[in-house]
Amino acid sequence: CPLLAESSGSFASVVVACGDSFDERLAWLCSLQGVDGSPLLRVEEIGPADAPSYVRIAGAGTSMILTRDGPAAPLVLRLPSLVPHPDTAEMPIGCRAQPMALDPCDFVDRALPPPLAPLESLFDAAAPSEVIISRASGEGAQWGVGRAGMLYRDLVPSRAGGALIASHIRIPGGGPVPDYVHFHRVQFQLIVCLAGWVEVVYEGQGQPFVLRRGDFVTQPPMIRHRVLSSSEGLEVLEIGAPATHATLADHEHLLPITSLTAADDGATLADATANRLPNTTLFGGQRFVHSIYEEAMRAPAARVEDGIAWRESSVLAATEGLVHVAHGAALSMGEGAVLSNEGAAEGAQDGAVELEGFAPPPDGSLARGGTGLAHDAAHLTIAFVTRGSATLACIERDSNEMRLDHLERADCATLPAGRPARWLKPTADFEVITVAFLKSEAAREAAARAAALEEVMQMDLYEQQS
Fold first, then answer.
1. CA distance 94 to 406
2. CA nearest 392: which of 371, 363, 376?
3. What stretch(es) of the chain map to CATH 3.10.180?
4. CB contact burial 336-373 (16+ within 10 A = b; e otherwise)
5. Angle at 327 (CA atoms; ends 355, 436), nearest 5 degrees
6. What angle do CA 81, 84, 90 make, to 5 degrees?
7. Domain formed by 3-102, architecture
8. What residues contact residue 159 under an 8 Å CB cut-off, 6+ apart?
9. Residue with more model confidence, 396 or 355
10. Could you give the 3-state DSSP secondary structure of residue 212?
11. Global pTM exceeds 0.85
12. Neighbours of 407 (CB within 10 A)
């Protein structure tokens, strides 16, 4: 390989074989100028003096060693956009300089939304028009091996034209995670723990905490965070928007890493909530959300549809109406059931849905989407079954006929806009999480409703405490 990592003294350098173009490349690199006209790169080491066979040059955060070894390797140098761009005609053969555009995100207050392309425009260009079903197992399952041996399943292969990426991730091994403090330039990111546990720490959220089955967090734009450890067999659902986004390290930002719960897999709900701080800080225009399954399941259902109790999350208000996240559970999983994030409610029974003899409702009867939202309020809705099974009924776009899809644990459905849907014959332990990306007008109205609801809830709480 012509490009090698070496160290010279205390410097790490990239080795570039130059062959017969050694002298020409050295002269060109040393001629590059910085913003103030001073040399961008300088010779730091050269040898032997009488007939140099290598030279180390450094500057602008770069260190490289040029050698006379051959054949000459291509050399691509990325330069800050403010640096004078060299004349292409003067570049030696095999050399190229690329300007690095200034990133507008670097010049925006971290509390404000990042200046990224509006998701609305991406959805308008290529939002899916048909229902997408992704199976976790069986003939239709598609898993790939990603970084560090993690298994990835792409839930929306089209990426909705670049608007989002949704992945089911399995991490077979457990123990400490070799992560570092980092952040993402995104507009939305959701992490749901599906199995096992993972210990994480987030900027402004106190000490590290553990996500267990059914817990989830939103990662607002630019929030610093780090993964510390995980159990064997960890599974997570990760949804991010846009699909392609930058992940940047922040080695200067220190986060608390003293583990309070990772060594104790039997930590209680009180342990999980003890470290949380008041959630008022804005990151990229959004608030951090940490939803704990057992805590959420004790809340009263916002509505009941087709034997499923729907509970709202605080994501709608926290994202200023960008995304709606809800949790649906069969009524047997509701208030009064014996709840645990390790197993189903006491008395729940597994079983496949029998479709024989099912009479579809008359046309027009599917008035609402499977999330409880009006079906045309979202660009698309992702419905991921976290436990049990049920049948999703929706209307085909062209034929206007009903289609039925039996979904089991870890199966996923992506519903496009204008596609009414409902759940039929859920098993007693059925649970589903839905993530709806709202249209802009619907987003504004939904945010206002969510804010009004939060105000009412705060008033009720105040009256109860008075």
1. 57
2. 371
3. 3-102
4. ebebeeeebbeebeeeebeeeeeeeeeeeebeebbbbb
5. 90
6. 120
7. Roll (3.10)
8. 165, 243
9. 396
10. strand
11. no
12. 25
